[in-house]
Amino acid sequence: MRRLALFLLRLLGWALKVEPPPEKRYVLIGAPHTSNWDFVVAILALWGAGIPARWLGKKELFKPPLGFLMRALGGIPVDRSRRNNLVDQAARILREREVAILITPEGTRGKAPYWRTGFYHMALKAGVPIALGYVDFPRKEVGIGGYLYPTGDLLKDFAAIRAFYQDKTGLRPEKQGPIRIREEVEGVA
Fold it and tell me: Under a CB-based contact definition with an 8 Å cutoff, are residues 77 and 59 in contact?
């Protein structure tokens, strides 16, 4: 599967660049997320890099007829309509298993006013790094460009995350929202 994924990425003109992880457990954020093609490229990149990742997706993606396929591809359905301790559940999984959990912090393919911070709190609670995963369509580059251990200072750590993603562009740039968190928008910290 790995060789096939690498072949397909090359055939499609994509370069895969992955910095090796400092640990076998981490939260992998994927951004920018502006199109369904992000998913296709990201799955090929994960397979090509040999990363055993699981990913979180809205529960609607897991209905028949594609639900079985989404689960087989590593998907974990999430009910975003109610609070269900997802951060605690993901942190527990990360402490118990050697796995990467992929999350798109924008939470949607549409233009979001800010990034959600669940990924940050999952990593902080589990004591694991955050992998800075990306797709950059103009450069046709996909990968993981670094790792950040959360310190508990969300605003300071997010400044480093923002600096990394500043020059990454999705397939649909018009759907790419600002790289900021709710705390910055609402002025709470």
Answer: yes
C-alpha span between 2 and 18 (Å, rounded)? 14
Cβ(143)–Cβ(17) under 8 Å?
yes
Write the pLDDT tens digit of every residue in 139-167: 999 999 999 999 999 999 999 999 999 99
Task: Using alpha carbons, list the distances in angstroms from residue 21 to 50, 61, 106, 164.
Answer: 12, 29, 23, 17
SS3 33: coil
Strand order in the sheet with 75-78: 15-18, 141-148, 130-136, 26-31, 100-103, 53-58, 75-78
Q: Left if phi > 0, otherwise alpha if psi is -120 to 50, otherwise beta: which for 131?
A: beta
* Pair type for strands 130-136 and 141-148: antiparallel
Q: Spell out the long-range contacts of 109-113 with Cβ–Cβ below 8 A and sequence spacing 24 or more.
A: 109/33, 109/34, 109/35, 109/36, 109/38, 109/172, 109/175, 110/175, 111/174, 111/175, 111/176, 111/177, 112/177, 113/177, 113/178, 113/185
Which pLDDT belongs to residue 188? Answer: 61
Which residues 6+ apart lie within 8 Å of 34 measured at CB?
109, 170, 171, 172, 173, 175, 176
Helix locations, the chain, DSSP H? 2-11, 37-49, 67-72, 86-96, 118-126, 154-165, 182-186
